[in-house]
Amino acid sequence: MSNSEWINDLINDHDAPTMSDKQRKILEAAIDTFSEKGFAASSTSEIAKKAGVAEGTIFRHFKTKKELLLAIVTPTVAKFVAPFFIKSFAKEVFESEYEHYEDFIRVIAKNRLEFVRKQFPVLKIFIQEIAFHDELREPFQKLFTEHVYQKFKKIIEHFQEKGEIVSLPPETIMRMTASSIIGYILPRFLLFSDKEWNDEKEIDQIVSFIMYGLTGKR
Amino acid sequence: MSNSEWINDLINDHDAPTMSDKQRKILEAAIDTFSEKGFAASSTSEIAKKAGVAEGTIFRHFKTKKELLLAIVTPTVAKFVAPFFIKSFAKEVFESEYEHYEDFIRVIAKNRLEFVRKQFPVLKIFIQEIAFHDELREPFQKLFTEHVYQKFKKIIEHFQEKGEIVSLPPETIMRMTASSIIGYILPRFLLFSDKEWNDEKEIDQIVSFIMYGLTGKR
Amino acid sequence: MSNSEWINDLINDHDAPTMSDKQRKILEAAIDTFSEKGFAASSTSEIAKKAGVAEGTIFRHFKTKKELLLAIVTPTVAKFVAPFFIKSFAKEVFESEYEHYEDFIRVIAKNRLEFVRKQFPVLKIFIQEIAFHDELREPFQKLFTEHVYQKFKKIIEHFQEKGEIVSLPPETIMRMTASSIIGYILPRFLLFSDKEWNDEKEIDQIVSFIMYGLTGKR
Amino acid sequence: MSNSEWINDLINDHDAPTMSDKQRKILEAAIDTFSEKGFAASSTSEIAKKAGVAEGTIFRHFKTKKELLLAIVTPTVAKFVAPFFIKSFAKEVFESEYEHYEDFIRVIAKNRLEFVRKQFPVLKIFIQEIAFHDELREPFQKLFTEHVYQKFKKIIEHFQEKGEIVSLPPETIMRMTASSIIGYILPRFLLFSDKEWNDEKEIDQIVSFIMYGLTGKR
DNA sequence: GATGAATGAGCATTCATTCAT
DNA sequence: CATGAATGAATGCTCATTCAT
User: Fold this and answer.
1) Does D touch B (3+ CB pairs < 8 Å)?
2) Which residues cross the membrane (chains A, B, C, D) (predicted)?
3) Which one of A50, C151, D131, D212 is at 20 to 30 Å from A134 when CA atoms are compared?
4) Nearest residue (CA) to C1' of E2
5) pLDDT at B150 exceeding the cut of 90
6) Which DSSP category does B215 fall into?
7) What is the pLDDT of residues D128-140, one digit of tens each?
8) If you measure CA to CA, which chain C residue comes closest to D37?
9) Considering only residues 10-39 of protein chain C, which place a Cβ less than 7 A from any atom of strand E?
10) Which chain D residue has its CA at the smallest distance from C216's CA?
11) How does the average pLDDT of chain B come out, rounded?
């Protein structure tokens, strides 16, 4: 199985097979509403109206409003970090065609951008609410530190040993890499989603920036 | 007037001279509460209690809850972008000791970090709420596009002409610069504020990253 | 047929032969719940869960929640007063071995205590709810005034004619007799059901009290 | 100070001086409603309507519906047992004109009957709800066992030593005394409050019954 | 007959805001 | 200027009951 395959696999929506029609409608309406007004400013009555169900129906499927939030956010966040979750992730990277750090982050970036494009409303909710709900922050922090961070770290160390990238602490490398990519994605979808974007080209530029900075000496 | 002077000038709290004791207490309590729970999830009665005033007193000073939000956020945001607001800003940069883009962003970064340290709760509120309130977003967008962006653009073009930085669109350069810095500041205060940070050194690393990337070929 | 026989007959559970398994489980669960939390504070969904049936099943067997209450309370109350209901009741008493009022109330007391022991939860529900439901109070009042009261009255008059008890109005005699007995039974089950009780002895004391008061001059 | 004086003193409504007009109206409406339909079946909106206030006003004065219940019931129950609460209670009894147990319970009975007449709705609520609320039962049990029971016990022992009443356990004597009186009061107000009652005469009969039973040998 | 999803009225409680004092 | 009682709409959630399967 080639890299592109297993990555794509994780992205596809193979979940929610047990979800009823109403349940899906409620989730959609809730995503809409939370995303637009924020969790605390959204009322369950509005969500019910938008979903075309009675208010009581929401609470038959989700015990509380907060549980509805978690039902929206958890699977998407899980899928977002899923590629890093795979056991063989780091190994695959080393043995793969990704000869350079550059290639690696380019693939990750393009692939995760695709995911963000599809799931932006949910990710927006996540970003907004993670600051206020322990039930959201704690599992995510665990997920991140125990899996994403560990795997990413090994990969960085691998390329540092190859002498390809500087010897800063891996978390610093990670932060720089991540914030450069996120610094594109966030405004792209949050502030200027109506603008036309050539994502392919932008990502190439960002990757280039990550590797060589702004001086252009490459 | 040297650069350091006018910058410091803008930071100092020369405002709020007309504010009564109660008013200040209300603002402090509101910052606390909004920052901790978010605007929508904070109740005016809780703020009143925390401020040690009667519920009605808040509405004597701020017509609505939203006006209270604006009263908190507006002056701080204004001060945050103030350096770019000054007419002579760009000119000063060109003629100043900042021979290199590197020096320029280093000063900006350190200086704005200082500001963020002091004002983080307010800026957190701003970041959280800008997505939901037109009254917040519109003036800020105007401020940004008409002043900050324009000035920053000129500066970038200046250094591009000097051949110091690559010929990407100025907004791309800006985004890369900004997100590298913000990508340090945000986690630093939002997620790991209890950790000990050597900000001076971190910023030097970030500036170096912005200029030369991760390859270390410099 | 001796007295003890017909009395025992009425107590035995010869009813509910047409009741399905589910129906019985629902009734049991409802008795549990109503008794513990009161009728109004009990929810049908909780009862359904406790009974191990679907929410809808309750309403297949009992049109409304109130009908469920009546189905619980009515047969038990009927059985409680049943001894007084029997046509030959008074006559049997006169011709029976009960030479004295004392013997009569002793048998009734012991016998009804036995019944209360078995059915306390249901009787508790009855006592709690009779004040609030006309559907409960009216048939009971009718039952009581037309049967229990009439029969009891004749018995009291019988013993008054024999000069065995004072010539107060029969209802006063009845009230004194009843409240002395009930004044034992109620706290015994309601407040101190965990304490060990020697019911036999207690009833003897109560009967003695009813007959001779507290002076002990007998 | 004669006995009748200190007893009357305790009965009079010297409380609630700090209660606002609205607060009193809410309490009255709540007593009405709770008494008529029971606590759980009463809605705060109905109480608000009956009291002529907004629903929110109820919750400004009483944090929860249950607190409203306690605010109604606690002071009345306290006043009901107040006579037994007084330090000198037992001593006064011994040295007083109450030469006989009979006189003592006659005064108590008449006096408490008067109280019940005025406060019946509240006492009805208490009786109904004590079974379901620990917050109600626990303080009352404490009050009763630590004060009422102790004092009453001493008085009973006093008259037992005088050879005036039988040597049953004091709590049995108490139960018999109390249930005879309560057995009059409860039906009198609960079931037949519309009937005309000669309370004076009835109580004399009850006291006589308590002392001498139904045989009339006195 | 039994289920349990669906309903929408109703619930206790909270809210931002007003206004008489 | 400050208060805090009063408001009534709105909130998240529960309820008894219905009905298609």
Assistant:
1) no
2) none
3) A50
4) C57
5) no
6) S
7) 999 999 999 989 8
8) C132
9) 20, 22
10) D166
11) 84
Tell me the CA–C1' distance in angstroms for B133 and F2: 30
pLDDT recorded at residue D27: 95
| Residues A139-166 as b or e (16 or more Cβ within 10 Å = b) | ebeebeeebbbebbbebbebbbeeebbb
Structure tokens at A190: 């949050």
Asked if residues A132 and B37 have their Cβ atoms less than 8 Å apart, the reply is yes
Distances (CA, A) of B29 to A76, B18, B45, B68, C125: 35, 18, 11, 11, 51
SS (H, E, C) B142-184: HHHHHHHHHHHHHHHHHHHHCCCCCCCCHHHHHHHHHHHHHHH
B182 closest CB neighbour out of A177, A179, A206: A179
Query: What letter would DSSP give residue D145?
Result: I
pLDDT for residue B133 is more than 70: yes
Closest residue by C-alpha to C1' distance, nucleotide F2 = B57
What dihedral do alpha carbons D42, D46, D50, D53 form, nearest 10°? 120
- CA-CA distances (angstroms) from residue A211 to A83, A122, B106, B210, C189? 22, 31, 20, 10, 82
Q: Which of A166, A214, A215 to mutate to test the interface with B (most CBs of B within 10 A)?
A: A214
Residues in chain C within 8 Å Cβ distance of D171: none
Alpha-carbon dihedral A86, A88, A94, A100, rounded to 10 degrees: -10
Q: Considering only residues 140-169 of chain C, list those whose CB is below 7 Å from strand E.
A: none
Q: Nearest nucleotide (C1') to the CA of residue C42? A: F15
The token pair at D31 is 């007593």
CB of C177 closer than 8 Å to CB of C207 = no
D33 touches strand E (CB under 7 A): no
Residues, chain B: 218
Amino acid at C39: F
User: D96: which residues sit within 8 A by CB, 6+ positions away?
Assistant: D3
Q: Is A197 left (phi over 0), alpha (psi -120 to 50) or beta?
A: beta
B43: tokens are 């109740």
Q: Which residue, chain included where needed, has tokens 């309507």?
A: D49
The answer to whether the CB atoms of C168 and D205 lie below 8 A apart is yes
Chains C and B touch (3+ CB pairs under 8 A): no
Residue C5's pLDDT band (cuts 50, 70, 90)? very low
> Does nucleic acid strand E have an atom less than 7 angstroms from the CB of B27?
no
Out of A128, A168, A175, the one facing B187 most closely (by C-beta) is: A175
Summarised one tens digit per residue, pLDDT across range B39-95 is 999 999 999 999 999 999 999 999 999 999 999 999 998 888 877 766 666 566 666
Residues of A at the B interface (Cβ-Cβ below 8 Å)? 37-41, 101, 124, 128, 131-132, 164-168, 172-173, 175-180, 182-184, 187, 190, 202, 205-206, 208-218
Q: Look up residue C191 and give its DSSP letter.
A: T
Residue C197 is encoded by which pair of tokens?
A: 């009780």
Which one, of D78, D79, D159, D74, lies nearest residue D114 by Cα?
A: D79
Residue environment code for B34-64, b if the CB has 16+ CB neighbours within 10 A, otherwise e: bbeebbbebebebbbebbebeeebbeebbee
Q: What's the pLDDT band for B154 if we cut at 50, 70, 90?
A: confident
Q: Which nucleotides of strand E lie within 7 A of protein CB?
A: 1-20
Tens digit of each residue's pLDDT (9 = 90 or more) over C58-68: 999 999 999 99
Contacting residues for B179 by C-beta, under 8 A, at least 6 apart:
A179, A180, A182, A183, A184
Residue C65 beta carbon within 7 A of nucleic strand E:
no
B63 touches strand E (CB under 7 A): yes
The phi and psi torsions of B196 (rounded to 5 degrees) equal -85, 130
pLDDT, tens only, C160-177: 888 888 889 999 999 999
What number of other Cβ atoms are within 10 A of residue C166's Cβ? 19
Count Cα atoms within 13 angstroms, Cβ side, for A60.
Answer: 12
Min distance A23 CA to chain B CA atoms (Å): 26
